[in-house]
Amino acid sequence: MAREELARSFESIGEEYDRYRPGFPERAVQIIVPSRVDTALDLGAGTGKFTSLLRDRARRVIAVEPSLAMLDVLAARLPDVEAQPGNAEAIPLRDGTVDVVSVAQAFHWFDRDAAAAEIARVLVPGGGLGLLWNRADPACAWDLACHRVAHPAVQDHDATTATAVELPGFVLEVHEEVRWTERITRAHYLRRWGTVSSFLVADEDGCEEMTAALERVLDHDPQTRGRPAFELPHLTDVFRYRRI
């Protein structure tokens, strides 16, 4: 299935994404914005899960997101943030007006070179760019097994490792792996998988089959079997770049 179709699958959800998707650790924003700045842009902001962390690190926070359903949720949750429709390949901001750009769980949907050029355009000279992704902890067998159900084409090493993206016009300054844990109910965990692209593009039978497979994993693993809630470990990879 084309990447564009998978990316567009998120356009129909907003409140579900905000309710069930995980957030990000405070340490991530400390890495990306180590000291307070004037203007920060969260690009591909979704419903504002990372945007909310920027508000204490910048005088002015702008969120740009192509999905209007997600942008509506962000605007309602974060009325002090300037929410604007747009995408990474055509950012609706003037040249050199942003001190730092963040992209949380979204850069893999972008056209790399076009997005890098646009980000460099809106950044001030020497401005910062932070890319971050949550990923499965390889020590958590049941979560990794669920990843295999929802993303059968993704190999284990792809789900549990992260490498820096080479970006024209930028130099990588920092890569830090942040470990954190989330307390989550079984019902919430299953609903979370319903917000990933493979579920969103599947037909009813496909969704039912994947959900049944997820439930079998939870029913058989000793860390989750018979439990209404459990501890879910996360790894968040944070990459901080500088415009050159």
TrEMBL record:
Domain Methyltransferase type per the UniProt entry, residue ranges? 41-128
Identify the keywords attached in UniProt to this record, alphabetized: Methyltransferase, Transferase
Q: Which InterPro entries match?
A: Diverse_substrate_MTase, Methyltransf_11, SAM-dependent_MTases_sf
Q: In its UniProt record, which GO terms are filed under biological process?
A: methylation
GO MF annotation: an example: methyltransferase activity
Transmembrane feature ranges: none
Q: Name one Pfam family in it.
A: Methyltransf_11
**Member of which family?**
Belongs to the methyltransferase superfamily.
Q: What is this protein called?
A: Class I SAM-dependent methyltransferase
* Source organism: Microbacterium paraoxydans
